[in-house]
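hey team, just a heads up i'm posting the complex here instead of the shared drive bc the drive is being weird again. everything in one block, sequence lines first with there labels, then the predicted structure for the whole assembly after. its two chains so it's a bit long, scroll down
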Amino acid sequence: MPRTPDPASPAVAVQPEPGDCVADVGAEVLEQVAAHHNYAEPPDIPVNPEELV
Amino acid sequence: MTLLSFAGSPHGGSHKLLPEWRSQPRITPVLIIDHSIVGSAIGAWWYFHDSTGIESHFIIRGRRSGSADGHIWQLMDTDRRADANWQANDKAISIETEDDGDPDTQPWTTAQLQSLIWLHNKLASRYPTIRRREATDCDGPGLGYHSKLGTPSCWTPVAGKLLAVDTPIPTPEGLRPLHEITVGATVFDERGEPCRVTGVYDDMPERAWRLRFDDGLEVLAGGEHQWVTITRGQRKGYFRRDRPRDLGRGPRPEGYPLDWARWGAVRDTDEIASTLREPDGGYRHTIPVARPLRLAQQDLPVDPYLLGTWLGDGGERDGVIFAAFDPDDLLACDAEFVARQFITAGYQLGSWQARRHVLTLRALGFEGQLRELRVLGRKHVPGRYLLGSAEQRLALLQGLMDTDGSAFDRSHVEFTSTSEELADAVVWLASSLGQRVRKGKGEATLRGVSFGPKYRVGWSPTIPVFRLPRKLARLRTVPSVRSQSRAIVACEPAPIQPMRCLTVDSPNSVYLITDRCLPTHNTCPGRPVRVRQWRQTLLPAFLHPEEDDFMALFDNVDEFKAAVRAVVRDEVHQAYEALARGEINNRIDPNSTHFQDSHRGLYRQMQSMYEALARGEIDDRIDPTSQHYKDSHRALYELLVAVAAATGAQPPPPPLSSSPVNRSDAS
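-- predicted structure starts here --
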């Protein structure tokens, strides 16, 4: 299902087939996607420590 | 909601939640499925993020991430579905692991293994529905890796590695086309041992190749189909003994080791096609021949040697056998030898007739047996004779070769017949006994008159393929190395066609194809190196979490290797020197043969282990985090302790002790 569309991302051009996992995408595409985001670390999402298990 | 606390995790963790982390449908996890990204963690995270419709619950960073190696990212609430496991999405937690895009050869780092073990155990504690077992079918439960059930399977729709569907496969029931092989069928591995087919998959490959070997064998395979090949450099390194550094390596081996498939490398057909030749034009890839197939002894009505003799030199419609006869030297002629074989097999000889230099022999009851075998009038080898034990197959081959075979020089023999059926039988018999044969076709002529085609099967034997003393004497006793492997000499594009692949449960994931018994790798369900790590390290740690304290004993692989080297270097040599000084306990006379033999044997054993370590083979062939390595290391330690006890020397420090690590001579 669509989540947070980023039409400019190289990821959009390589849509997976049903049942694919990221291994089917290829290192080259992932590199392009990472470069598109300037190799930025994904954002940390604050969580409530008391809810962690 | 289940978000993990990473307190206590070996390399920490953080929550890098995807936008859909809590909007996906709810699940009850019963499975953990490990994956390899084939790329970077950052690239994968952003790929998941950017509207692609797939995701994973976790990513474990790897070597590429530098000091963050082993760090865990949680991307999804594990009570919610992540789309990574096709039909198992509703029941599986998926863990992606970073690599440099080459997980086929790049193992998980020690830090990744430590984090995987921690995470598996954490999830199994959180979800009692995830049972501590190996997942063996679509619904689990337990621990698996993405391609474990095959490619494609219910966990992934992506196809595996393929061979043409009509490729013949040796089975205990004979050669069967690949398209007839089903799950549960028995095939053979490169050691000639039976193994079981655990998966069968059909698909169209993206590329197809026709591989040609130097014995004329041709095989159609998909670009991703895998082989275990030995490169020319590896082969030379193993066999050569002409360099100063080869001193002490013992005599030149007569053949490839039984476990060659463990030190060869797994390569797909695409890679072989692009690396076919060495820079000097020589062929790069060879595949050793398989060992003789272990088939059950058959109840055969006619002695196989005598059947082979009749097939070669017998009357087409009766039971007579024609054999060379020398009236001046009765004891040395072929006829005397054949007659003796009949008598040894329990036959009574009947009438005989000598004409010029040919003796016509009859054995009582032999013709009736041939009639029952339905070979009179149509000479051929009955199926059960082709599927006898190795001894029975060799006897049949010897009968055929003693009559229709020749020894041209000390290294080459040839079988010639106008019957292609008999020639094909010889191809199978010899190949199933570990021989590399070549089949050719020519024209049979006699005094310039053509009698149609003739078929020739030639090879350099590594076994006694004759019984006749005069032929046997021409064979040399030491087989050539070249006769024990096939070189890949061509790899040409072929039309794409439906293909099939198998998975088997043989120890090295190898099985045999074609009537030449060519070893090939199965469609490896996953990345070869990581699958081995998964089976040797991750699965045991998951099944027996209470026993796995091994990883905590060392911080990194280099330290571990240095410790092993230091122990071996110091203790082996100290122990050996103590032995050399005769410092063994009083009960054994140091001058006795027993002592000398033990001393030499012990030294050879230790020296070979030490040299293997010094050559760095520990790095290439054995995963230091594997159970196999742990067992080997412990076995070595126990040996050293035993030597120390026998010599009265100080026992070596226990495995993984930090004491020898910092010694200056440790490397």
